Amino acid sequence: MEKAFQTLFAMSIFKQIEDLKNKAEEQIQKIQTQTELDQLHSSILGKKGELTSILKGLKDLSDQERREAGSAANETRKEMDLLFGNAKKQIESLEIQQRISKEKYDALKPIETAQGHLHPVTAVQYQVEDIFSSMGFRVMDGPEVETDDNNFGKLNFSEDHPARDMQDTFWTEDGNLLRTHTSSVQVRAMEKLSPPFRIIAPGRVFRYEETDASHENTFYQVEGMLIDRVVSVSNLIYIMKTFLSAFFERDVKVRLRPGYFPFVEPGFELDIHCLLCSGKGCPVCKQSGWLELLPCGLVHPNVIRAGGMDPSEWQGFAFGMGLMRLVMMKYSIEDIRHFLSGNLRFLKQF
Ligand code: PHE
Fold first, then answer.
1. Greatest mean pLDDT among 11-15, 19-23, 67-71, 173-177
2. From 156, 181, 199, mutation site for ligand 1 pocket: most ligand atoms within 8 A of C-beta
3. What residues contact residue 346 under an 8 Å CB cut-off, 6+ apart?
4. Which of 3, 4, 250, 277 has its CA 20 to 30 A from that of 131?
């Protein structure tokens, strides 16, 4: 290329670079978003951008001019990088500002927190307590670790009584036990209260046995005991019927079958008319029309005596309900193991 022409050409390259810089400055001003900025950046400084195509002309220049134009181009690139960098920061803070102005803080909006609620067994326990309280029963409590005497001895289980084998027991090293039934609270009630009295005692009991859909090694019972001068089986039936009708919110029919427990005489198994088919017969009651619900009976004279009372003066009845059984019937739950599983999907249904 001619020298003079080369010079002219070099000047035009400088001018093009200068123009490009001005154009970039001008356009950057107008840009509002990150994407537009990126597009502009690659159209000017990218591999196929305008600066690259201008610099293709450098090969036609003299060495010195090429060096000068080259360093001018580098200088420009640096300046433009700075321009783009600043623009990027500005757009970012603009976008943040826009987002903040759209977001509203509502001081009255309730904060959503996970709310707990009563376990179904506890909720039903409270219902049972309410119903019995309305009939003059007081709610008593007893310890889960008991003496052999309170759990068995004073309840008329003799040392070698075969009934002791009916309940497999967790023993502690010091010869005590985890109570196998809430009947131990009968003993405590007789020692603490003076007759006549009526108590119920809800609580946790333990049996050393295999678990299945209807057996747990840890479960809940509600014990009941009424002591008065004259107490008959019809008093027992009346209280049970009144309780069950209030609990299931319908008229509940009951029947008694003989049942053996050393601390009651006579002892019974109380059945109720099947709640599902009202006695007509269905799969739940195995076509019998009846469901076995709770054991009960008149307090054995030996138990009255062990409780410090004279059996010729005082009589009573007692009953023991499976609290989890009641919950299962009320809500049609098929497996007792759900209760202590800690499964939130189960618990959240209540
Ligand atoms: N304690 C007995 C049991 O757990 C139930 C029961 C209580 C029976 C009161 C009669 C009277 O099986």
1. 173-177
2. 181
3. 338
4. 277
Closest CA to 190 of 236, 148, 166, 223: 223
183 lines ligand 1 (CB under 6 A): yes
Per the listing, tokens 């609580």 go with 203
The pLDDT assigned to 24 comes to 86
| CB of 203 sitting under 6 A from ligand 1 | no
Q: Is 34 a residue whose pLDDT tops 90?
A: no
Q: Verify whether ligand 1 is closer than 6 Å to residue 318 (CB atom).
A: yes
| Interatomic CA distance for residues 295 and 261, integer angstroms | 9
* pLDDT band (50, 70, 90) for residue 274: confident
What is the number of the ligand 1 atom nearest to the C-alpha of 186?
9
**Is the C-beta atom of 319 inside 6 A of ligand 1?**
yes
The burial class, CB within 10 Å (0-12 / 13-18 / 19+), for 212 is: exposed
Among protein residues, the one with the nearest Cα to ligand 1's atom 5 is 320
Q: For residue 11, what pLDDT is reported? A: 72
d(CA 43, CA 149): 94
> So what's the architecture of 120-347 in CATH?
2-Layer Sandwich (3.30)
Which of 168, 263, 298 maximizes ligand 1 atoms within 8 Å of its Cβ, making it the mutation to test the pocket?
263
Ligand 1 centre from 51 Cα, in Å?
96
Q: What's the CA-to-centroid distance between 261 and ligand 1, angstroms? A: 7
266: Cβ contacts below 8 Å, ≥ 6 apart? 233, 258, 297, 298
How high is the pLDDT of residue 31?
86
What lies within 8 Å, CB to CB, of 246 at 6+ separation is 131
Ligand 1 lined by 224 (C-beta under 6 Å) = no
Using pLDDT thresholds of 50, 70 and 90, give the confidence band for residue 166. low
* Ligand 1 within 6 A of CB of 261: yes
- The domain segmentation of the chain, as residue ranges, is 2-102, 120-347
Instruction: List the single range of 35-49, 130-144, 295-309 with lowest mean pLDDT.
Output: 35-49
Cα separation of 300 and 212, whole Å? 33
Interval 10-24 mean pLDDT: 82
